[in-house]
Amino acid sequence: MDIQENIINKVAQSGLVTLDPASFYPVGDRVIYDIKDNLFHGLILREKDFRDFIKEHDWAQYEGRNVGITCTADAIVPAWAYMLLANRMAPYAREIVFGDKEVLETVLFEKEIAKADFEQYRGQRIVLKGCGDAEVPVSAYVELTKRLTAVVKSLMFGEPCSTVPIYKRKD
């Protein structure tokens, strides 16, 4: 039998450009500071005790880290308490946000995405990679979609061999 089959890689010939959202993964450790540990009996924040803590705490441990400040206790915490924490962490931390890990990741990804030049994708057919080693928040996909839709010919989600269409410019 003398049959030669030519295998054609249609994905390679498709002109699709794969963009991995994980390439925007922000550097630095993540730390969540929960102010609940500073509450008296887990209920109230006593100003004098809190100010003593602010003076004595080792703030250098936040050096180069991305910090989310939150309170997971069901307590009313005045805004100035979060402000004092941010003020003391600012000389050390890479980034400080008010919120939990999800909010921190959203802010970090948005800042990295904002630095990117999306003009390089003008008129291209883009696939936003859906799987990878780094955990990418949905908010990053939303931000990338918003920015890419303005310049690309088409946008898809997934892998080049199996995509979900998101946007196609009507010319």
TrEMBL record:
Entry-linked Pfam families: DUF2480
Name this protein carries in UniProt: DUF2480 family protein
Species of provenance: Mucilaginibacter angelicae
